[in-house]
Write a structure and sequence with these properties.
The chain is α/β, with parallel strands linked by helices. The protein has 2 domains: 75 residues, Fe-S cluster assembly (FSCA) (GMP Synthetase, Chain A, domain 3, 2-Layer Sandwich), CATH 3.30.300.130; 251 residues, P-loop containing nucleotide triphosphate hydrolases (Rossmann fold, 3-Layer(aba) Sandwich). 31% of the residues lie in helices and 21% in strands. Strands 4, 5, 7, 8, 10, 11, 12, 13 and 14 form a 9-stranded mixed β-sheet that branches. A hairpin with a 6-residue loop joins strand 12 and strand 13. Helix 3 packs across helix 11. The radius of gyration is 21 Å and the shape is globular. Bound molecules: adenosine-5'-triphosphate. Keywords: ATP-binding, Hydrolase, Iron, Iron-sulfur, Metal-binding, Nucleotide-binding. Homodimer. GO terms for molecular function: ATP binding. Binds and transfers iron-sulfur (Fe-S) clusters to target apoproteins. Can hydrolyze ATP.
Length: 374
């Protein structure tokens, strides 16, 4: 199958006329934020906010030409408009001090002490499942936790926590973060309308992330877990640059390919000077529920060896298990649905290790959560 590239996408978009009816979208410089992840494509077309409704046929045409590119499985096109100063909405936020351990050049988020990213070099490795159970594991260990779902390709949080979409943005002031199982949560999935893919309040995709960080009332949090989009392209790099991260956790499956991708993830965070808190090996082994036999179907242990080689802490291994899949997909993550079971214990243990890394790096006297053991 041919690879979908930005160049091919731009070439196709030259066939779509812009709002003036004469020049094409590319010529007018209206296409931005092109994200390609396997067969999934997302991009923005900047338009005048007042004309957005009339430009739906143009958006549809852009979607149509890109969806015809061989290898493209899904296309998300957002009409975006940069908010004009004084056009309403939440008041501009004052720069806050950076979160401890993060880049001091990036302002922190009100009330949030520490922000960590959960990332993966490629999609489908169970990053979101791990992120939510890690967040619940941190909470089970006595911390106040929030989760920001920054995965624009396929936001998972609404599904993982069974939260319905946001009904209406507030007329003024900050939007309150949602709550699910005691976690404060926000997701890209709440910001995109189902039938009109226009980002909430019309900002660009990247500004949507900034809005979720700074224009949402998160309350007081010890830690915010950011579920990053999969992959290591420009979009991920930008996000890693925008969010004042104290560190990143990389999720990988044991297969070689995923590990190569995980290495790219490590390199990406290095590039933006974000410390890697460690690697989690997901779908590490299969434990037969009836006979108890363990099978290392993906050649278990690769992540631990790779972590050692790269000098990154190894945070733990999560088995491939039906209970983890079923609970995730039912919106009742295993740490809350079976809090005393073996899988919940694994996530709580990983959470303790992550927190230990954070506190060690921050060099502060903050008590690490205790590891819950039977
Ligand atoms: N350890 C596990 N055991 C069994 N199933 C798992 C495990 N981890 C994740 N899954 C399942 O794998 C599927 C993909 O997981 P998830 O959505 O968390 O992956 P992801 O890496 O975030 O994917 P994407 O890149 O598409 O966002 C889900 O159905 C999830 O329930």
């Amino acid at each position: 199958m041919s690879e979908v590239t930005k160049e091919v996408i731009l070439e196709r978009l030259q066939k779509v006329r812009g709002p003036d009816g004469n020049s094409d979208l590319v010529e007018l410089g209206l296409v931005s934020d092109i994200f390609v992840s396997g067969g999934r494509v997302a991009f923005s077309i900047t338009v005048d906010a007042d004309k957005a409704n009339d430009l739906e046929p143009m958006r549809k045409a852009a979607e149509e030409v890109v969806s015809r590119i061989p290898g493209v499985e899904s296309v998300m096109v957002a009409l975006t408009a940069e908010r004009k100063p004084g056009s309403g909405g939440a008041a501009p936020q004052q720069a806050r001090p950076a979160a401890p351990g993060s880049d001091p050049a990036k302002p922190g988020v009100d009330g949030v002490k520490t922000i960590i990213a959960v990332a993966s070099g490629k999609g489908g490795v169970g990053k979101s499942t791990t992120a939510i159970n890690l967040a619940l594991g941190l909470q089970a260990n006595g911390l106040k936790v929030g989760v920001l779902d920054a995965d624009i390709y396929g936001p998972s949080l609404p599904r993982l926590l069974k939260i319905e979409r946001m009904p209406e943005p507030p007329a003024e002031g900050k939007l309150k973060a949602f709550e699910g199982y005691g976690l404060k949560v926000m997701s890209m999935g709440f910001l995109v309308e189902e039938d009109t893919p226009m980002i909430w309040r019309g900002p660009m995709v990247m500004s949507a992330l900034t809005q979720m960080l700074r224009e949402v009332d998160w309350g007081e949090l010890d830690v915010m877990v950011v579920d990053m989009p999969p992959g290591t392209g420009d979009a991920q790099l930008t996000m890693a640059q925008q969010v004042p991260l104290a560190g990143a956790v990389i999720v990988s499956t044991p297969q070689d390919l995923a590990l190569i991708d995980a290495r790219k993830g490590l390199a990406m965070f290095k590039k933006v000077s974000v410390p890697v808190l460690g690697i989690i090996e997901n779908m590490s082994y299969f434990l037969c529920p009836s006979c108890g036999t363990r099978s290392d179907i993906f050649g278990h242990g690769g992540a631990r060896a790779e972590a050692e080689k790269l000098g990154a802490p190894f945070l733990g291994e999560v088995p491939l298990h039906m209970e983890i899949r079923e609970t995730s997909d039912a919106g009742t993550p295993v740490v809350v649905s079976a809090p005393d079971g073996p899988h919940a214990r694994i996530f709580k243990d990983i959470a303790a290790k992550v927190w230990e890394q954070v506190t060690t790096r921050e060099g502060r006297q903050r008590a690490a959560p205790k590891i819950v053991m039977d």
